[in-house]
Amino acid sequence: MKKILSLLLALTIMLSLCACQGNFGSVDLKDSIAIPDDGIIKESVIKQIKNENAIGVFAGKSGDFKYEWTIFGSDIEDTKEINLQAQISKTADGAVAVVLAQTDAFGFSGLLSIHLEEKWEEDSATAYQNDQPVASVSLTGSKDNTILNCILDGTLQEFTIKADVLPEEEETTEDIDPPTEETTIPTTGNDDYLSRPGSNDDKVYTDGKDKYLTDPIPEGKPQPVEPEDQDVDKAKTYTCTFSIECSTILNNLDQLDPEKLEMVPSGGVILKKTTVTFYEGESVFDVLQRLCKEKGIHIESSWTPIYNSAYIEGIHNLYEFDCGELSGWMYRVNGWYPNYGCSRYQLKDGDVVEWRYTCDLGHDVGRGMS
Question: Other C-beta atoms within 10 Å of 248: how many?
Answer without folding.
Answer: 24
